[in-house]
Write a structure and sequence with these properties.
Largest sheet: none
Shape: flat
Order of helices and strands: HH
Structural class: mainly alpha
Number of domains: 2
Number of strands: 0
Distance between the termini: 49 Å
Strand content: under 5%
Oligomer: single chain
Length: 82
């Protein structure tokens, strides 16, 4: 039974489907890296799974930078009361 008050991205069955599809797409792209011949511009971008681990590291870096920026840019709870 689908609850009409719950957004479709908050339903447990949708979350499970998204995880399965995401993992499937990642597995297929990693397998394709075995069969494709890389034409690297630099030495490092010819390594196996370069775009996967590079994307992961840059995502982690963006999260860390956002957390640090949040410390400096944060306003108090009574910001509009002043």
């Amino acid at each position: 039974m689908i609850n009409p008050g719950v957004h479709w991205l908050q339903r447990p069955e949708t979350i499970r489907k998204l995880w399965r599809w995401g993992i499937g797409v990642l597995a297929v792209t990693a397998m394709l890296d075995l069969f494709l011949t890389p034409h690297p511009y630099f030495m490092v971008d010819g390594t196996f799974g370069f775009y996967a681990w590079y994307g992961l590291l840059t995502c982690i870096a963006m999260i860390i930078v956002a957390k640090v920026l949040g410390i400096f840019l944060k306003q108090g709870d009574d910001y509009y009361d002043d």
